[in-house]
């Protein structure tokens, strides 16, 4: 069985709904499983189930055990929050072939088309991260020590979107490789605040030799980064010149009101949730009222200060005049 895993909690509920809206528009039947990021997942799980038939990861005991073991492998000053690695549970869930998708993504094509690349490899991804070298993945120490071949280092990837097979990695392999990572933090580049990405790359390059980057297999593949400003919206899809994007990944680009491609995100977020749209518009109106009230209060305070300042000037001037008329 092929399908999708996402990791989410109630804090990223809005993004998760937008993602699943985009997935379901283009691929209504693909199975989707929610891996809870932590214990605060009831709202997002309920809403995704009701709107988009998303199922909860069926083995929460395993998920908790995995998180605990990872926390024991890594020192706290190396990996402060083991929950960041819960996406690794995808290798041990019910899906034989799967695609993992971060919640700051929108999909514009059937996910089944991307999953089909698993017919050619045991691990797939679709990005141009390799063009930036080893930034946000490995340090120079990895090159100096020859841990990977130059060809393997050309396979570094962004850990927000990737696919694999359940058979590609065993739990024993996983724990062994995580132990190697924990013993060699000098291998990794965490300088820009990445968490799981360097470790994910180490695991995959060490354990899964049959890899495929879709952008290399498909030379006409467009970009996907939400920080790119040249994409053009046509209907419900973004285009890079005349080529429709497979997906859009904000990947560190702020997802906020007035941000890049926010109108498209709002389209997908509220496409099947008119109640959510009404609530969002009410929140926006409340915020705008608060801003206007604050501006009015600030203006009133400024006006009062100006009046007091003018009165003080008059009093000083009167005292000076009075003093100058004395003999």
UniProtKB/TrEMBL annotation:
InterPro entries: Npun_R2821-like, Nucleotide-diphossugar_trans. GO terms for molecular function: glycosyltransferase activity. The keyword Glycosyltransferase applies. The keyword Transferase applies. Gene3D superfamilies: Spore Coat Polysaccharide Biosynthesis Protein SpsA, Chain A. Keywords: Glycosyltransferase, Transferase. This is Putative Mannosyltransferase. It comes from Phormidesmis priestleyi Ana.
